[in-house]
Design brief:
The chain has helices at residues 16-26, 43-53, 63-76, 86-94, 111-119, 129-146, 155-163, 171-174, 200-204, 213-221, 223-236, 274-282, 317-323, 328-344, 353-363, 372-394; strands at 6-11, 32-39, 57-60, 81-84, 100-103, 123-126, 149-152, 175-182, 243-247, 253-259, 264-268. It is of the alpha/beta class. Helix 6 runs parallel beside helix 11 (223-236). It is globular, with a radius of gyration of 20 Å. Bound molecules: NADP nicotinamide-adenine-dinucleotide phosphate.
């Protein structure tokens, strides 16, 4: 008997994770069919994806980009229907004909579509870490109530997921500690005082991973790891004290779980996002990802170290925000998005990203967010405070 193809929506299809997802899908035409794609600005990339995958819908975030795409599709004789805006993105994430959704939009803009897919009970492949950092309990509750299957795509969380037993009801009594590995990014060997003059190009040149610009800067500050600590707390139901971060510059061990009997299970592999994407697409099966295999005979050493709090002051904000009032992680995320954008636009020095985050956390007092509207309001006020702080620290 033939298994029906999984119909997949890829949100953020023109980004780093989106492109890797389509690469894995293209390797398995008998298993997957692209139902819809979404992007923000890259019209030509979207056109090429429509030509290759013939999705039913292509959604652009704004009207001018949607219009341009529609014209180009028409000229090319392609039948994909073009839609526009955040409501349309939510619609392709929750459409009744969709089986699986890859959530690979960057930033808090991904929260609404993730909630829509969760509410509709989809198989939700979660790359957009901000959805969990901003949405927290509300997001996890929506996943439970909607009956969605949540599959982590961040390589660290996929590693933890793969190291845990399949039945989540056993996790609480078995997990002693979750150990997230971090490469340390491009500035691992620098001194804290030497980071004032680093450029966006230097910050985005990650030694092991090829990623979008926002997450690359977050890796350089280790705010990425801070966001992952918050993600792990929600995904695996552990307390902040049960999460530890270790520096592992080789990026071979993607993360580990220490169990109550003191044994540790880790997942290893080459640093290639197509591995966790293939895991998410096929789980509980395994399929070819296209990634290179590890060659243990060529591996000189695997090292592990404690992170330097003076070099990476942002990392500790994860535990601070998790212990503070509900909504604090959403404030931290908004502040960091604003600060990173200001750095990428050369309006803020790299070593002042942390100062903007700290000041925003001190300025904005969150009230417990009970709905998406509450979260969006909190996100907006944190962005306003962070923009003001970024202006002041730019001076
Ligand atoms: N890259 C990685 O290796 C990696 C690993 C783990 C987790 N993640 C997480 O996965 C997510 C995506 O990361 P990425 O590196 O793939 O980012 P990216 O390369 O910057 O791609 C982001 C995608 O989102 C679209 N987009 C941007 N702003 C949008 C908006 N306001 N509304 C709708 N779509 C929007 C972009 O469209 P255009 O390109 O057309 O403008 C692009 O398709 C992030 O949350 C990141 O933290 C990434």
């Amino acid at each position: 008997m033939n298994t029906p193809k999984q119909r997949v929506t890829v949100l953020g299809s023109t980004g780093s994770v989106g492109v890797s997802t389509l690469d894995v899908i293209a390797r398995h035409p008998e298993r997957f069919e692209v139902f819809a794609l979404s992007a923000a600005t890259k019209v030509d990339e979207m056109l090429a994806q429509c030509a290759q995958f013939s999705p039913r819908f292509a959604v652009m975030a704004s009207a001018p980009h949607a219009q341009l795409l529609a014209e180009k599709l028409k000229q090319s004789g392609l039948k994909t229907r073009v839609l526009m805006g955040s409501d349309a993105i939510e619609n392709i994430a929750s459409h009744e004909d969709v089986d699986a959704v890859m959530a690979a939009i960057v930033g808090a803009a991904g929260l609404g579509p993730c909630l829509a897919a969760a509410r509709a009970g989809k198989r939700l492949l979660l790359a957009n870490k901000e959805a969990l950092v901003v949405g927290g309990e509300l997001f996890m509750r929506t996943v439970r109530e909607g009956g969605a299957t949540l599959l982590p795509i961040d390589s660290e969380h996929s590693a933890i997921f793969q190291s845990l037993p399949e039945d989540p009801s056993t996790w609480a009594r078995r997990i002693d500690k979750i150990i997230l590995t971090a490469s340390g990014g491009p500035f691992l060997t620098r001194s804290p005082g030497s980071l004032g003059a680093v450029t966006p190009e230097q910050a985005c040149a990650h030694p092991n991973w090829v990623m979008g610009r926002k997450i690359s800067v977050d890796s350089a500050t280790m705010m990425n790891k801070a966001l992952e600590v918050i993600e792990a707390r929600h995904l695996f139901g552990v307390s902040p004290e049960q999460i530890e971060v270790v520096i592992h510059p080789q990026s071979v061990v993607h993360s580990m779980v220490q169990f109550t009997d003191a044994s540790v299970i880790a997942q290893l592999g080459t640093p290639d996002m197509r591995v966790p994407i293939a895991v998410g697409l096929a789980w509980p099966e395994r399929i070819e990802s296209g990634a290179a295999r590890l060659d243990f005979r060529q591996m000189a050493s695997l090292t592990f170290d404690a992170p330097d709090a003076a070099l990476f002051p942002g990392l500790g904000l994860a535990w601070h925000a998790l212990r503070a009032a509900p909504g604090t992680t959403a404030v931290l995320n908004a502040a960091n998005e604003v600060a990173v954008e200001a750095f990428l636009d050369r309006r803020l020095r790299f070593d002042r990203i942390h100062a903007v985050n700290m000041e925003t956390l001190e300025t904005v007092a969150p009230s417990k967010p009970a709905s998406l509207a509450d979260l969006l309001a909190l996100d907006a006020s944190a962005r306003a405070a962070a923009n003001a702080a970024a202006l002041r620290f730019a001076a």
